[in-house]
Amino acid sequence: MVSLADLLAVDSLALRRTHLVDADAPVRWVATSELDDPTPFLEGGELLLTTGLGMRGWRRAWDGYVERLVAAGVCALGLATGLTHARPPVGLVRACRQHRLNLIEIPHSTPFVAVSRATADLLEEADREEAREAMRCQRELITAALEAHDGSALPRRLARLVRGATVVLAPDGAPLIDPSGPRAADLDLSALAQEVARIRPQGLRAASALATPDATVELHPIGARARPSGYLGVLLPHGAGEARRSAVRTAVALLGLAGERAAERRDADRALRGRALTLLLAGDTHGALLVLGAAAGRVVVPDRVCVVLARSSAPSAEGDLIEAGEDEGLMIARDDEGVVALVAPERADSLAAAAAAAGARVGIGEPVTLDDVATGYRTAGHALARAGEGSPVVAWERVVRTGILGLLEPDRAADFARTLLTPLATTPELRATLLIFLAHHGSRLKVAAELGIHRNTVRHRIEQVEALTGLRLDDPEDRVRAWIALQALPAPPAP
Fold first, then answer.
1. How far is CA 424 from CA 42, 450, 461, 462, 473, in A?
2. C-alpha–C-alpha distance, residues 72 and 191, integer Å
């Protein structure tokens, strides 16, 4: 940027300050005109040079002339003296003061072309300096990107380069990398989170800018895939040059590349964990550990594990579970059954609870060594099959403690019991006798003693049960069938 002060500092031009409102006003170019209304030919930001030839004898017309120049965005008016006017007219000076327009005097010895050439030289040098500054910023940002493969050092370096502030937000608006920079306190995180929510549906094409009295806060999506992985917020003080704006664009690109590299590493690590799981299920513990050793991320595999198997109807929920487990360094992967995690037994309940809170059904296998992961996986699958809305988390050890009925579907077991024991429905003393008979392993003497009846009565009742149900109670298989049926239905009252 070239300011009016830069031009006034060129000694060879000998420009004089008649009335300065803003010496730091940027000069975009130099224009020359003797028209009483040159504004149709101006774009704004020009230093307008005139000899005042067409303004000879003006008194009240100066006010409208200056007002039109200000409305057109003219940076300053340069009046040549020693030709039409010996010195700047009083009316012109008064109008410039009233409308706050910079006014400079150009002596007769300074050609307009010299002012134009000096301005062009300054603009060219400013462009070269901007380019050099942009290159310096780019090198610093690339260095910062190489210092941390995840790009975490980049926003802090950018905040220093732009002399403002930066923050990286997640797609939900929460900070991923905290605010940094000399003006970090000026970032309104709540407003930025609301802006993220507004532009998020537009994906990577969306960007936003929020104006403040002395700065602009820009919000840029980060990522190279279908949807942003985050958003870079940058506070740029007013007057930030092209080099700083270029630094912001470079940082966005580098953060996107860092995110892409991280995603590729994450995908590669997931493939390695999936392969390791396959090897563990096949009993190749050594091979599995070798595969995990090739992963870029840390993976913790205890010597003794519980297999936690989680299944959700929402793929995004399973993806969130995997990402959370990866962040903790867990051995976690996806297979045809859902999400599979191998964790220390004391960690299984908390992981299962987190999965259930995310809407998944969860089965916890029995604790096993790494050489027996296949057993833990099978028992986790059995437990998962028992999980439902009322009981989203089921542990195999709990199933085992409930006995064989824990392996049966409750309604199916109840229907089996009703069908088998219906003939005994009107004779509760037979059901009671059958239950005690099975509890005493077929000892009629012990049944008679417990019921207080003669053993011949016990024998007669057992014969009746066999006749009504078709069971042969000397057959171990029929005894098992009778026992399961009795457990699946409420016990009859004692006779």
1. 107, 20, 11, 12, 15
2. 34
As assigned by CATH, the class of the 4-110 domain is: alpha beta
Q: What is the signed CA dihedral for 335, 341, 345, 351, rounded to 10 degrees?
A: -120
- Determine the CATH number of domain 408-488: 1.10.10.2840
Contact (Cβ atoms closer than 8 angstroms) between residue 341 and residue 351: yes
Phi, psi of 397 (to 5 degrees): -60, -35
Sign of CA pseudo-dihedral 376, 378, 380, 386 = negative
Q: Which pair of structure tokens corresponds to residue 342?
A: 């191998």
**CA torsion through residues 78, 80, 84, 89, sign:** positive
Domains in the chain: boundaries: 4-110, 136-261, 300-401, 408-488
CA dist 386 → 98, 343, 351, 439 (Å): 85, 21, 18, 28
- Which of 200, 198, 195 lies closest to 210, judged by CA? 195
CA distance linking residue 329 with residue 298, whole number of Å: 5
Token look-up 């992963």 returns 295
* Residue 50, amino acid: T
B/e letters for 39-63, b = 16+ CB within 10 Å, e = fewer, are: beebeebbbbbbbbeebeebeeebb
For domain 136-261, is the CATH number 3.30.450.40? yes
* Cα–Cα–Cα angle for 100, 105, 107, rounded to 5 degrees: 175
Q: Would you state the pLDDT for residue 270?
A: 87
d(CA 468, CA 482): 13
As given in the structure block, the two tokens for residue 338 are 């859902």
Cross-strand partners of 342 = 307, 331
pLDDT beneath 70, residues of the chain: 148-151, 224-226, 402-411, 413, 490-495
Tell me the residue type at 417.
A
Burial 265-275 (b: 16+ CB within 10 A, else e): eeeebbebbeb
From residue 440, how far is each of 434, 449, 490, 495 by CA, in Å?
A: 10, 11, 19, 17
Q: Give 395's strand partners.
A: 364
**pLDDT tens-digit map of 410-461:** 667 677 777 788 888 778 888 888 888 888 888 888 888 888 888 889 889 8
Which DSSP string corresponds to 306-339? EEEEEE-S-HHHHHHHHHHHHHTTBEEEEETTEE
Query: Which stretches does DSSP call E strand in 153-229?
Result: 165-169, 175-180, 208-212, 215-222
CATH of segment(s) 300-401: 3.30.70.270
